[in-house]
Amino acid sequence: MKKFDLHIHTTCSKNRIWGPDAISTPRQVVKAAIRKGLDGVAVTDHDTVKGGLLASKIARRLDKNFLVIPGIEIKCRDGDIIGLGVESNPRGRMGKLSAIEAVEMLRDMGALVVAPHPFGWGGVGKHLETAGFDAIEGFNANQLKCVNTRAKIAAYELELPMVAGSDAHYQVNVGNGVVTIDCDEDTVDSALTAIRAGRVSIYREKRTRNGLLVFTFRMGTFLRTILGKYPLCDEY
Ligand SMILES: [Zn+2]
């Protein structure tokens, strides 16, 4: 059984309103996850796979047994959708796509498509039945308990695999949401195949308590970016 946090953001992640979205670089995320005893992570930055690809490269150098699943979190017309196992950025304007179209596009790119925090802010809860997701995020460390409970019930009812992630924007919170995956090999394909087959279960649910602090830090990154002093993604 391998332990994975399947929803993490790095400095490559961008927020449409205030720009820089997360505080920790891909390197800091990988190091934190290794330190916390995880076997792997999925990096799911907003609108870019860059953080995931960088983290994957760094992990290969730091610890050969540590696996990074490159991913992306896109915002379509109906809410946020995660694609796991994506290595290139989707083309076109994601905001115009419906949930059904966005799921189809990510699947065409070979992704395992997850509905993150479906009943929280930016969730695609209303479209869970119709959009054809591969899995539902049953625990997101940034969400209220009732929001996660609704997601779990939906996963049971729709008989979809349930995944979990910290949705960390700061490395301290990496590992707050963890699943175990029963995969045969240490490869992205093997991990995704196991999730699709339902060989995944939620292992750790620790709600993030430092949300306000992290939000303040994120505003700090915004200010530093305006002043041109923030080490963005490239300086990982
Ligand atoms: Zn997220």
Task: Fill in the keyword field for this structure.
9-stranded mixed beta sheet, two-stranded antiparallel ribbon, 7 helices, 11 strands, 32% helix, binds zinc ion
Task: Walk me through the topology.
Blueprint: E1 2-8, E2 14-15, E3 19-20, H1 26-35, E4 40-46, H2 50-62, E5 67-76, E6 79-84, H3 99-108, E7 112-115, H4 128-131, E8 135-140, H5 145-158, E9 162-165, E10 177-181, H6 188-196, E11 200-205, H7 211-226
Parallel strand pairs: 1-4, 4-5, 7-8, 8-9
Antiparallel strand pairs: 1-10, 2-3, 5-6, 6-7, 10-11
Helix pairs in contact: 1-2
The chain binds zinc ion.
Zinc ion binds near residues 73 and 167.
Describe the structure.
The structure is a single chain. This protein is of the alpha/beta class and 236 residues long. It has one domain: Alpha-Beta Barrel (TIM Barrel), CATH 3.20.20. It has seven helices and eleven strands. The chain has helices at residues 26-35, 50-62, 99-108, 128-131, 145-158, 188-196, 211-226, and strands spanning 2-8, 14-15, 19-20, 40-46, 67-76, 79-84, 112-115, 135-140, 162-165, 177-181, 200-205. The radius of gyration is 16 Å and the shape is globular. The mean pLDDT is 92. Bound molecules: zinc ion. Zinc ion binds next to loops.
Number of helices: 7
What is the number of E strands? 11
What share of residues are in beta strands?
Answer: 25-35%
Task: Strand order, main sheet: write it out.
Answer: 9-8-7-6-5-4-1-10-11
Shape: globular
What's the CATH H-level homologous superfamily? Answer: Metal-dependent hydrolases
